[in-house]
Amino acid sequence: MRRRSSFFQEIRLVHLLFFLSSISIPSFGQESQRIAFENVRVFDQSTLSLSPAQNVLIENNTILQISKEWTQEMKTASAKIEGKGKTLIPGLIDVHVHLVFGSLSMVEMMSPGLNQEIILDKSGKGAEEMLLRGFTSVRDVGGPIFPLKNAIDQGKILGPRVWPSGAVISQTAGHGDFRTPQERSRKFFGQPSRAELFGATFIADGKPEVLTAVRENLRFGASQIKLMAGGGTSSAYDPIDVTQYTLEEMQAAVEAAEDWGTYVTVHAYTDRAVQKAIHAGVKCVEHGQMVSEETLKLMAEKGIWLSLQNLMEDSPKMDPARREKRKPVLEGQKRVWAKAKELGVKLAWGTDFLFEPELNKEQNAYILKLQEWFSPAEILKMITYDNAQLLALSGNRSPYPGELGVIKEGALADLILVDGNPLEDISLLAQPEEKFLVIMKDGKVVKNKLD
């Protein structure tokens, strides 16, 4: 018990230093700021269509008015953006990112010189580029995210809203066991691994350790918990087919998360892993490309979210062993997308780029891969409104109170003015530099090509 206590004290110290440095004093008494979009066609997720010409008034970070008329309140706007009949859509949402792991190569991750300053610099640049691609909100499903999130929220770094999971929680020899061959078990030898000290992972075995790991992440602001429930393609020790964590361990994580009003999502590909997680009470499954129709029916029946990706077929820089492990996942993903839609499973979309920073610029292009199963309007709804519903599953643990993924009065003002009609040409979403004329996050214009 003393060894376990010492381990978590070391982890707390690393996180606490960042937590204390993140505290800022809020400002009060600022005058309200109003920005008006004139003559725009607004995407309506309920009808999967664009409205006739509308005017949209933003006050501070909220949509105050939507009107066909140019109202008296709109006349008081401090800035006017002339839409000229172009399309206004909600900010894009990616519900499966790793802002840190996606900004560093494996060589950089393993470098002896890696430190928090380097991590924040590289992931900060990645976060800014992501926002300028139109992704105003993301769910970070594992990694040392809290310092970056704090810096974004304080305005020190430009980036999207972040729903953080914190360190992934993994059993020994699980998908989140990032130890090198030289690193021995902390439980037996008393030394936390490098990845654990960086806040990338918790290796937690047994109900007491799982409870502590979940509560540690919640203590530092996790909006949901990420648990590794099965084998993975980017990990060294676990075959893709293995099931991880006992039912009791997963139930402990679910109970601890639900006591804080939030949920557990699991990394899992196979029927056995996914079904065990569902029986344990999880609300969301990441991946699932190898599940059967029987499991998808269970998910639809119980209202379990499937956070699915459409992974690339290959990458020249990918390790050959990882490429081999991915084969059954790639074989299953086309079948699962189609069958999940047919059965009415709650579907969300994400990218899941890992350790290949050059891939990040393809984030928008990956949206287009959905055309095999969805219409342009369905795609736009999924990557805005539907993904926002999954974010809302965090309840009171959501770091940003308010409604996202929709353009209506009272919703948060995360918006993109698109040059063209994405319901007619969905490829516009893959051209953010040219076609995203205005990007607004939290009522603030972060890009304006019309100036």
From TrEMBL:
Every Amidohydrolase-related domain range: 87-446
Classification via InterPro entries: Amidohydro-rel, Metal-dep_hydrolase_composite, Metal_Hydrolase, Metallo-dep_Hydrolase, OTAase-like
Record SUPFAM superfamilies: Composite domain of metallo-dependent hydrolases, Metallo-dependent hydrolases
Pfam families: Amidohydro_1
Superkingdom to which the source organism belongs: Bacteria
The name this protein goes by in its record: Amidohydrolase family protein
Source species of the chain: Algoriphagus confluentis
